[in-house]
Amino acid sequence: MPPQVSTDETDELFTVAADYLRKRLTPELSQPKVAIICGSGLGGLVDTIEETDKVEFSYEEIPGFVSSTVPGHAGKLAFGLLGKNKMPTVLMVGRFHFYEGYNLKQITFPIRIFKLLGVETLIVTGAAGSLREEFETGDIGVLSDHISIPGFCGVNPLSGPNLPAFGPRFTALSDTYDYELRVKAFKAAQKLNFTPGSIKESIYCFAGGPTYETRAEARFLKSTGGDVVGMSTVPEIIVAKHCGIKILGLILVTNKVVEKKPKSADPMNYQQMMNYQDQEPVNHEEVIALGVSKAKDMKNLVKTIIELI
Ligand SMILES: O=P(O)(O)O[C@H]1O[C@H](CO)[C@@H](O)[C@H]1O
Ligand SMILES: Nc1nc2[nH]cnc2c(=O)[nH]1
């Protein structure tokens, strides 16, 4: 039996959604132990589950779910068995974002459904821009911490009445990213012979989007100690931590946010000093394309991590 979280009227919709899914799944699939959120361009992760036992629901049909509106986010929930250990798993193929106009409660709604279904581990994936010279495009970041820029302004998915059935009023986030899972991520990368250095611990800066960073914002974020920046991930992670789900964050670096002003530029040579203007601005098509090109690596990594769980 999955853990039973008692509910009251406020969280009635969570129960309705969980019951809706449970009724349409076999007992084996209705009690997933692992949930995976697929980030931009990473929807291919759904292929890690066997086609034969895959059951999918479009977000539109699940009570309380909103729709995916961003290219690269298909908008479906897929249940199946993953890896050699046939881990019962649920995948969000496409996530919700604050910049789509949804509030943080809507964005994080699925996490509490996962809790009610019995999920113990959440693997959050996403695309992000690199704030550090040493983080190359295509590298994978294993999240060790985050900085929520909207959080400093009171934008937090746990604002408003607390739901004690899920967790406490005040939640400590100091150990949010499970150490054992991070170790497993590195062990999996080693097992798969990933290029040394292409997978690194990273601190994720959550920016609201949908605009990418100005050059000054990029410098500011870098000065905060962040390694990568994206427009998602943190809200889901906060709600998962609140209800006691173990968390692993995997970020694919899809572009570089740091500007490349040459260190040796002659201060009297305005062309040298200003040549960072030549840098191509980032765009979402490039973000998705990078995700698709690294799909195989991401799939193998996630599968191997789950086999180590
Ligand atoms: O975080 P995911 O959804 O993977 O995608 C990242 O890429 C998109 C911008 O290109 C934003 O949604 C940003 O958060
Ligand atoms: N904020 C932000 N999100 C991203 N997602 C993918 N790349 C980026 C980026 O450069 N900035």
Automatic annotation (TrEMBL):
What the record says about family reads:
Belongs to the PNP/MTAP phosphorylase family.
Q: Which InterPro entries match?
A: Nucleoside_phosphorylase_d, Nucleoside_phosphorylase_sf, Purine_phosphorylase
Q: Where does phosphate bind?
A: S40, H73, R95, F96, H97, A127, S232
Which pathway does the database say it acts in? Purine metabolism; purine nucleoside salvage
Tell me which NCBIfam families the record gives.
Answer: PNPH-PUNA-XAPA, PRK08202.1
Q: Identify the keywords attached in UniProt to this record, alphabetized.
A: Glycosyltransferase, Transferase
Q: Give the E.C. number(s).
A: 2.4.2.1
Per UniProt, where does a purine D-ribonucleoside bind? E213, N255
Species source reads: Diversispora epigaea
This chain's function reads: The purine nucleoside phosphorylases catalyze the phosphorolytic breakdown of the N-glycosidic bond in the beta-(deoxy)ribonucleoside molecules, with the formation of the corresponding free purine bases and pentose-1-phosphate.
Q: What is this protein called?
A: Purine nucleoside phosphorylase
Gene Ontology annotations for the cellular component aspect, listed alphabetically: cytoplasm
Q: Which GO terms describe its biological process?
A: nucleoside metabolic process
In this protein, which residues make up the domain named Nucleoside phosphorylase?
Answer: 33-306
For this chain, one GO molecular function annotation is: purine-nucleoside phosphorylase activity
